[in-house]
Amino acid sequence: MATITLDNLAHSYLPDPKTPEDFALKELNHDWADGEAYALLGSSGCGKSTLLNIISGLLIPSQGRVLFDGRDVTTAPTADRNIAQVFQFPVVYDTMTVRENLAFPLRNRGMEAEEIARRVGRVGTMIGMEAELDRKARGLTADAKQKISLGRGMVREDVNALLFDEPLTVIDPHMKWELRTQLKKLHRDFGHTMIYVTHDQTEALTFADKVVVMYDGRVVQIGTPQELFERPAHTFVGYFIGSPGMNLFDATLDGRQARIGDATVDLGAAFRHRGPVQVGVRPEFIRLATGGEGIPARLRRVEDVGRHKIVRLNVGGTEVSAIADEGEAIPADTDRIRFAPGAVNVYADAWRLTPEGGDAR
Predict the structure, then answer these.
(1) Residues in domain ABC transporter (predicted)?
(2) If residue 212 lies in a helix (H) or strand (E), which one and from where to where?
(3) Peptide bond just before 15 cis, omega within 30 deg
(4) How many Cα atoms within 13 Å fall on the side-chain side of residue 323?
(5) Cα(179)–Cα(86) distance, rounded to whole angstroms?
(6) Which of 56, 162, 166, 360 could connect to 88 by a Cys-Cys bridge, CB 3.0–4.6 Å?
(7) End-to-end CA distance of the chain, in Å?
(8) pLDDT of the residue at 88
């Protein structure tokens, strides 16, 4: 287990980068705590795998350092970092049995046979392959092979970090849930530092203690699932986390009021910023109304998704989503929306503004 420090880290795949746009991974300075589980979350091409490969030693960064517990490992080979890494596509030895595949990293370290048998049996159960331990890996399905690859990473108990690069892509949905549960149990039992790369917000939010959201090669927010939901630090976080994502309204800010179209909204706190902003409100905090105060809106359609209803509205030419309870009646003459108190975030140049006096929430 290790504290992982990223010091002035950046990377470009170009031989002579000159501008920030030339960098696939823009400058990072972060300490990732020993024994915590992190998820690197973002859309394809945002830099997640580049960062993971730098941490693992598969890639040497263009600038900066990587430290494990204060020891500079920036140029150290993967074997010297004492990590286990599981990749998106399974890496297994077809001529070996499932048992031999799982035992391989332990035998390489000269572990006693009795301890190897104990760990392999435990991990075989965790990945649901205890009945297939003596079967050759050749001919197994892709998801079975990925479970072997995952198990080989989980079988070691002495690693500095466990790194997972979208390891559940080829796993069927039910088994994904089971394996995420087992990974969390592994983390609780042994306290490994874990870093899990995914573009799936459900995987990230259910797996990690802290989610590291990346956008355009930058880390835009590190936080708990609740923090990412309630206070997205960047508009991308608001858009990417949640289903549907956060609604954004172009507005003009004046103290504690925002002007959205012809309507004025009380923000509940004052802001020093003046001029154009965006007001962000999650669908869960949009209230439907008929007449009276509020922002003019036109009801377009209602989607019943079982647990709740998603109400689609048009507000000044922009689609806005609201979430209503399953049993809630949606008036056909809905023509206004309002915001739940305390549920508004304000953004300038895509970054969240802090109100005067700090956050009340």
Answers:
(1) 4-241
(2) strand 210-215
(3) no
(4) 16
(5) 13
(6) 166
(7) 34
(8) 77
